[in-house]
Write a structure and sequence with these properties.
The protein is an alpha/beta fold and about 270 residues long. It folds into two domains: about 45 residues; about 220 residues, 3-Layer(aba) Sandwich (Rossmann fold), CATH 3.40.50. The protein is about 45% helix and about 10% strand. It has a five-stranded parallel beta sheet with strand order 2-1-3-4-5, sandwiched between helices.
């Protein structure tokens, strides 16, 4: 083999090694790509993801209004549990309220319907319309805020054809209308806890306006100052970053408040 060919082979090998190392790093650090499972190694080291915070040791609530019923959870990484080894909100409610859950959650996705991974598209294509859901719980995705998706306007009517699903507002209205037409069941949205995002704050405000129009439930973790006033030590335990809770964050902080608000809403609608 000539020196030129050897040099070319060495360069190609170096590039391949570099790409492999890069993908290994991306998988470990950002839970993405062909080696995304390596992210579990990093997440498992977080104090907030200790086995003691697992949902399997929760006690079931007596006289749960959702006992034995099926609940659909629709969302992105927060619903998926990307920083909690995939153990979070759906798993908490499955144990605490004794319900059967369907978790339709994909990290990085938006309400806004501009990709096949959007909430709207997955609701249309991934969720069985023949299933008997008693409740649908939808995450107000932070991805729409971080990706600067258009907010849109509230439609005058209630028909599916009236909603511009390429906007945040239109997508939310479509999801509400679709769930009611398909399963005739209550729809509840939940927000994240407060973080520094004007765009998400605007989305939360729009959600409260849709609550007035549609009578949906809103599990609001955003506005309550007392709820959000946790210590630095608690925040380090509860959160992997400003958006994604650990197991401890779900179990000890978010979910008990969500449970209280959900039970109050269900009691009001009978």
């Amino acid at each position: 083999m000539s020196k030129k060919k050897k040099k070319t082979m060495i360069i190609i090998l170096a590039v391949l090694v570099f790409l492999l190392l890069e993908w290994l790093f991306i998988g470990y650090r950002f839970d993405f790509g062909p080696f995304k499972s390596l992210g579990d190694i990093r997440m498992a080291k977080l104090p907030g993801n200790a086995e003691s915070y697992g949902m399997d040791t929760l006690e079931e609530l007596e006289n749960s209004p959702l006992k034995g019923k099926r609940v659909l959870f629709l969302g992105s990484s927060v619903t998926y549990g990307s920083a909690s080894l995939r153990e979070g909100i759906p798993e908490y409610f499955a144990v605490r309220l004794g319900c059967e859950v369907t978790k339709e959650a994909v990290s990085g996705t938006t309400l806004t319907d501009d990709k096949t991974s959007s909430y709207v598209h997955r609701l249309q294509t991934k969720v069985d319309p023949a299933e008997d859901y008693s409740l649908v719980v939808v995450q107000l995705s932070t991805n729409d805020a971080s990706k600067s998706k258009p907010l849109g306007e509230i439609a005058e009517g209630f028909a599916l054809s009236e909603f511009d699903t390429h906007t945040v507002t239109g997508a939310m209205e479509y999801i509400i209308a679709y769930c009611r037409e398909t399963w005739d069941c209550p729809v509840v949205f939940f927000t994240g806890s407060r973080y520094d995002s004007e765009a998400y704050a605007v989305m939360v405000q729009r959600l409260t306006e849709l609550r007035d129009k549609w009578g949906i439930g809103v599990l609001d973790l955003w506005h309550d100052d007392a709820f959000n006033a946790i210590s630095d030590a608690e925040r380090q335990l509860y959160m992997n970053d400003n958006i994604h809770p650990t197991k401890a964050g779900y179990r000890e902080w978010w979910c008990p408040e969500m449970e209280a608000q959900l039970l109050e809403y269900l009691s009001k609608i009978g």
